[in-house]
Design brief:
Helix content: over 70%
Bound molecules: tryptophan
Number of domains: 1
Radius of gyration: 21 Å
CATH topology: Hydantoin permease
Distance between the termini: 53 Å
CATH class: Mainly Alpha
Order of helices and strands: HHHHHHHHHHHHHHHEEHHH
Number of strands: 2
Largest sheet: 2 strands, antiparallel
Strand order of the largest sheet: 1-2
Strand content: under 5%
Shape: globular
CATH architecture: Orthogonal Bundle
Structural class: mainly alpha
């Protein structure tokens, strides 16, 4: 039998998982959600959920993946024995990967378009009105955003077709640290703006009165989305982790890095938004109007803008790679397709729904279902329903269906790592995480 590919080192897993986690979720979606859900109130709930539920859930996915050495569908089948319903969780994950990839590549395409705009120096000397108009014109353009989206999907398919180690690991290793550096520079720049104080107050002052069911489920969905958990992407990556690697510290490292980048994005965007008079509730346009405004007033703005959008494109690409990899791992192993064919078919299928998501953004587009654009609907369905449900089933599976001894064996690498902390994590996986996810999930259903 052909040996399954592995990441080459512990650094390889952290880097690939961080590559999956870091992306538009941090820089585009997080500020958008924080802005519309009350700023500080959202942040505090988010931090608690990411650290307390996010880490154990990420570890759970690694445990399933490495134990089974298989894609999510095969993993649940292998670990649950014959004639079981558990593989449904795997199917749900693969479906979820499709749906996320479809709308994710809409915004991924925008980043590509904005990379082009920054190369062509489209933001220099523009006022807020003009920059807002550029965003409207771009998203309303009849074909440009679609072409950008399709190019992005093709790039993703190209990398995934070449395989895990070559494609995924190599890209992430160099570029993720560079993104962090440039974000720190932007962060310092934002702190010197006139609206810094007001922006920071909005972002960091928790108004506990604003916490309600909607804030809770938004923060939960955002944490799952940002950490790439709850649908099998990290089961897939877990299946490439070597037997000697430390999964708990890897997961903790990724959660910290991901949270740091999200908070940095907030510190860049909110002070700037208050300075330039952009509403923090601006939603989808928040990042794409605020950031060009920041660059356009900065010394060396052209240069920073170009590098920033380049890195954003790459961070986004390492995320789309992990989403397509879920589909490709499942179809190559379950249906015995070749890797390149699976990558192409996956991308084409995604494009079919993805184009609708992109078109639904145009003003007056008929692509609305139940008052939401197709784009919003896909986002909402996955982040508020599929991922929390998937996450709940995953922690229940590891906590209650798998044998406790097997789980501890995975967590401690066969007893060679310290057990105290790992038992505590297993406790969270068994009791705290399922209850917390269930409570938040139900609070949204009843709290409408
Ligand atoms: N986490 C990525 C981001 O924040 C997006 C992403 C990649 C994702 N893989 C995923 C989201 C799997 C959910 C599930 O941009």
């Amino acid at each position: 039998m052909k040996q399954r590919e592995n990441f080459s080192s512990k650094l390889g897993i952290i880097v690939a998982t961080a590559g999956s986690a870091l992306g538009l979720g941090n820089i585009y979606r997080f500020p958008c959600e924080a802005g519309t859900n009350g700023g500080g109130a959202f942040l505090i709930v988010y931090l608690i959920i990411a650290l307390l539920i996010g880490t154990p859930l990420m570890v759970s996915e690694f445990v399933i993946g490495r134990r089974a050495r298989s894609n999510p569908i095969g993993a649940f089948r292998l670990l649950s024995g014959k004639k079981n319903v558990w593989p449904v969780v795997g199917y749900l994950g693969v479906l979820c990967a499709f749906l996320i990839l479809a709308f994710y590549t809409t915004v991924a395409g925008w980043t590509l378009g904005y990379l082009g705009k920054s190369a062509a120096n489209h933001f220099a000397g523009q006022d807020l009105g003009q920059i807002q108009l550029q965003f409207m014109n771009f998203t309303n353009h009849p074909w440009l955003p679609i072409v950008c989206q399709l190019i992005f999907l093709a790039l993703t398919a190209f990398v995934v077709a070449r395989g895990v180690k070559d494609g995924i690991e190599r890209w992430s290793k160099i570029l993720m640290p560079l993104l962090l550096v440039i974000m720190v520079v932007l962060c310092i720049n934002s702190l010197t703006l006139s609206g810094a104080k007001e922006g920071l107050r909005f972002f960091f002052n928790p108004d506990f009165g604003k916490i309600n069911g909607r804030v809770l489920i938004s923060a939960l969905g955002q944490a799952f989305f940002s950490l790439s958990i709850g649908m099998g992407a990290l089961i897939t990556y877990g299946s490439y982790i070597g037997k000697k690697d430390n999964m708990v510290s890897s997961a903790a490292g990724v959660v910290l890095a991901d949270t740091l980048v999200a908070v940095l994005a907030g510190v860049i965007i909110f002070p700037a938004a208050f300075t330039f008079g952009i509403q923090p509730q601006a939603g989808a346009s928040l990042a794409f109007t605020t950031l060009p405004m920041v660059f356009q007033q900065m010394t060396g703005g052209y240069f920073f803008c170009l590098i920033f959008f380049l890195l954003l494109v790459i961070a986004t690409l390492t995320s789309t790679i992990s989403l397509l990899e879920v589909i490709v791992a499942a179809t190559t192993e379950e249906m015995k397709l070749s890797r390149p064919l699976a990558a192409i078919l996956g991308a084409v299928d995604t494009a079919l729904i993805g184009v609708l998501a992109t078109l639904s953004f145009r003003d007056g587009s008929p692509l609305h279902i139940g008052g939401r654009t197709v784009f919003d609907l896909l986002d909402h369905m996955t982040a508020s329903y599929f991922m929390p449900l998937g996450g709940l089933l995953i922690v229940l599976f590891v906590g209650w269906k798998m044998k406790r001894a097997d789980v501890l064996d995975e967590l401690t690498n066969g007893g060679t790592l310290k057990t105290g902390l790992r038992k505590a994590i297993l406790f969270i996986i068994r009791y705290l995480a399922p209850v917390a996810i269930a409570v938040i999930f139900i609070s949204q259903l009843v709290g409408k």
